[in-house]
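Sample entry (627 residues):
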Amino acid sequence: MKRYNRKYEIAITDDKQNGYIFRAKMDRRRALSSAAKIAIGAGVAVVVAGGIAAYFATRPPEKIVETVIQEKTVVETVAGKEVTRTLVETVTPSPTIVTTTPTVRPTTPIRGGKLILQHRVQVRNLDPRRATSIDCLYVTLMTHDSLVRYSGDIDKGITIVPHLAESYRKIDEYRYEFKLRKGVKFHDGTELTARDVEYTMLTFWGFHDWNKKFVSPHSVFYAPYFDPEKLEVVDDYTIRIGTRDDYPNYGPFLWDLPRLSIIPEKASEEMGDRYNLNPIGTGPFKFVKWEEPVISLVRNDDYWVKGLPYLDAIDYVTITEPAVAEVRLLTGYVDLILGVPFKDIEAIDKTPGFGATSGRSWENCFLMINSIKPYLESKYVRQALLYAINKEAILKSVYQGHGIIGMPGYIPPWHWAYNPEIKPYPYDPSKAKDLLAKGGYPDGFRVELMVNNVYPWLDVAQMVKQDWEAIGIKVDIKPGEEEASYAFVFDLSYDIFLTRFNGGLLSYDPHGPHFTWLYGKMPEGFRDDIVKQKGGQYWPHGMWWGMWHGPEAEKAWDLIDKGAKTDDINKRKQIYGELQKIIAEEVAPAVQPIILANQLAAFKDTVHEFKQDFGGRFYAENIWIER
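Predicted structure, serialized as tokens:
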């Protein structure tokens, strides 16, 4: 993406109010057309979360005339459900453009300033042990640290490097020893010790009294493999972590640790449920307050990495509709947005004063298919569903080419575990009809398609509905809020759920939050127990996505287990290659990717060193802004 190194400062002002409508540094030749676009704006119907307008009305980072943005609330019907929308339009008088002399851009980091950062989905949890959505985990990455973290990129390779642990070593086939950095302080002033690491492991894994009160959904990744009896505090700065006897040379060992944010035992035990609303970590930013739609963070002046972070503060703001976020960015209210409309990313990047990124990620737009429903149990019916979808059209129309078609074996082509024999199901409606008949439904059936009620998933759902109805499957779209929709997954009442999953934020290793969580074996009595719970509790030793069952599922479960019992990457690659063949052939109902989307971000060009990895992580301590 393009960056501009030398610009004129352009100010678009309202003469009567003497306030800035828009201000940026840009090439003078392009100033007039760019300014006109911002000043005139475009009337678009958008969904906006309550409280957004109030937040921006009270703290705009630029001086902006009150009449620049007007919002009119309307109620519309989408797929039979009433949705509140807000009409956003610009109504400012004709602008006056003022130029100043060119400015020289700084090339070294500058300390200070507040970053206003937009994200898409409302945050539910700030306790890392309870946070699962990408929007929650973004916050925990800013407030907490882990023993090790990921380094590198897709092209150069992903590695594990020490973080809170200054070093680590493998001491036998089951255990690693970690040496902690000395003098690291939690935000409440207490020092990090090995006891805090021990407490963190036990509560994440599900083996502590804390877990009797609070559920850690992450326990599914750890409880079957890590052994609490092998957790040993050697001294204040040394801890040993080990796996169960059934899992020597556990392949995912180190790769599973970056998402384990270290928790202070004393604060967590004293605060109980309040820790979820007032988290305390060792991270570069300290929590201040959480008042919807904003989570406020400030610099941790005692951060253990010398000279970091650069920013004074971060406001993490929920704006669910990308069109609203885009307007807020272009009119100066927001510095950085993560919910960028795919159709606008190129235009934003070409707009002087702004920049954008589009990078490969592990964020799938996928189908979760409930295979205990009679009409979805046959693999031939599930294959028909994939053949019927024009995925190229979706990639071009909705995603504007920012991504690739998802792989039916789940692993993306850029990953070391990918089997190159696995290819997407081609668009073939005729073959889809034949497979429907082979599966026992020559005349089709009626299915309910749940979907997140935000962009871009509603758009994808409409195209999927059109394709399926073309082969005789009647589709009722059921839009809903992402978290609420999972209640229907937990009680098994859903048919098909179209949503997103970015497992890359949880782990780079294909075992834990990928194969185990999505396709792993269900314990005896699992279905009855999960139906009784209904409230969204997570089963500690397996997941229920799609309720995959049958002989091929049994083979897959054996391969998943086998792949974890070696740290030889070549052996694991061979095992996972066979596993992908089964998942693709069976159209394993847990997660069937449609599109593997790029991660998009847009920002003022005064924002520097914002970089996302394959899972969407960004390390905010490295970000700095021109002031």
